């Protein structure tokens, strides 16, 4: 803007300068023309005087007009001559008494009356001649004056060389005759002057009304009396210059205006682009690029706003902290594009849940990252936390059809209430996180509302972690072994090592409680290595029975896992073929290639691999086909359901068929009853494990049982069945 103003002012200055200098040039030009016109009139006078003098001063004139008066000569050689050759209008010869002796006029034949009129107008020139300041002025003079009401040049010359001498003291006139010639300043004279001076429309005007732009020249006599007014159209070099300059100036102005407009438009566009860019950046900064939902930053802002609102008396709200279950598996097995699509589907469903609920503007669905979402919802009317949570769960757990895949995932929700008791956003988030942990721990696919107990829970978990670390360091853990028997249940062919921890204060803590703590804190690596070493050491007393060791995903994914196994085998001198590692499906997720190469290396050492808990996870055929498992362990839950649900039996049949088809041994876990045993055996299961064949016991007891197998026979009816 300031640049535009400066340039506009500069251009304005240029215009003003051009116009004012043009005006000045015009003024100078008019002044020059005025002076030239005055000089031209004077020059005319001089010429008329000179022409008259050339006749009046001649010897002939003296002889014929002064010494002796010849009227014929006066008519011919004075009047007619000056008229004919020099265009004088009227010529007079006046005697020493001021009386007209002879007169000539080109307009008419002079008579007494005309002469009398003319004589009155000739008086001033004769007076001037008489009053001349010096001899020359008393010899000849010229005036510009009115003659018979016309402006005229009136020249008077004394005949002869000297001045007129007065006849006597009282006479006003000279004794010598005087010639007077009148040249009217008529249109011919004016045209002549105009053509010489190159001025246009030079004319005599009656009044002072002339077209604008024309110049008025008042012709006055020496006393300032107006004789006549002339007018002409002055040359206007300034105007001409302006006329010449204007097109360029106009072009320049137009160019500048165009440029200014262009620059302005460009700047406006740029400004608009910047604003749009800022908006987009802001949007990007506040939204998730994948699904378009508000992101963590946006969510944090809204959470603060809602807390403020609640504190000021607004309705209570709730934060639903949603974590997808099994999303990682989908992402890892089906690829990221399917994972992305799944996230978009989840987004849509979450948004619909909120939208169908109400149009409250404070409500928000945000993606906090990965498979974590947050829903903020005001609680009004009949909407309860439970009903909202249930709707979210129902929406998310329904199957997704993506590509050719039919995908089922679950969700765990931690809920934290935002009411007037809430202090700040950090607390809300912590509470929701704790509630989410609880939901996951209680078996997923559920929502948990935070309560004050959870805080205690969290600190007790922390304490448990500290105690577990000490237990690992001080050999406070024990390892029990559960027998694995052949299909008939008669012979123990292996054992599974199961970790036990007896807390000095709390007593026995089940693995379902301390294994997650170990996994959460990373202690599982040390715990796992301890179990592996203990199991290998104990197994040396178990004859040729194999020993199965559970491996946590965290442990298996470590780059040094295979070398740890090698080292332990070398240290304990256990035959690698007697060691069996039990992996779950989640172990394989993530980097397929790394998992596969680790498994191949273990196979090369001679270690056998079992797929644990089959049927509970993603249960992909791909795992079975791609990974070199020796064994498949049907999860306890199926065995448990055999008698209750028809499809469980069908699934067990299918899994057995699958394992056998792929050349794997199939183990059934959790066999408790004779009927289960019967069914599983009939289905073709190779190996049985469960309370029916023995609970987990100490290494010493396993050794004892191996030494005296007859003491551990199954009860009679089953034996009959088994045989
Ligand atoms: P898992 O690997 O599936 O182990 C089998 C679990 O089933 C054991 O529970 C066992 O006591 C139980 N079980 C065996 N037969 C029966 C039966 O007939 N009926 C019923 N109801 N249960 C039966 P446990 O010892 O409580 O272990 C639980 C889980 O803890 C294990 O499941 C395993 O995943 C984990 N775990 C135990 N020890 C270790 C370990 O040393 N390392 C690792 N990484 N995980 C371990
Ligand atoms: Ca196991
Ligand atoms: Ca198992």
- CATH level-1 class of the largest domain: Alpha Beta
Strand content: 15-25%
Radius of gyration: 65 Å
The largest pleated sheet is described as:
8 strands, mixed, barrel
Task: Please work out how many helical segments DSSP would assign.
Answer: 25
CA distance, first residue to last residue:
103 Å
Record field, number of beta strands: 24
Helix content: 40-55%
Shape: rod-shaped
At the fourth level of CATH, the homologous superfamily of the largest domain is: EAL domain
| Widest beta sheet: strand line-up | 16-17-19-20-21-22-23-24
Which key terms come to mind for this protein?
723 residues, alpha/beta, Beta-Lactamase, Alpha-Beta Plaits, TIM Barrel, 8-stranded mixed beta barrel, 5-stranded antiparallel β-sheet, disordered C terminus, binds ligand C2E, binds calcium ion
Word description of this protein:
The protein has 723 residues and is of the alpha/beta class. It has 3 domains: 21-233, Beta-Lactamase, CATH 3.30.450.220; 296-450, Alpha-Beta Plaits (2-Layer Sandwich), CATH 3.30.70.270; 460-710, EAL domain (TIM Barrel). α1 packs antiparallel against α3 (71-86). Mean pLDDT is 87; it is low at 166-174 and 716-723. Bound molecules: ligand C2E and calcium ion (2 copies). One calcium ion (CA) binds next to loops. Residues 496, 550, 582, 612 line the site of one calcium ion.
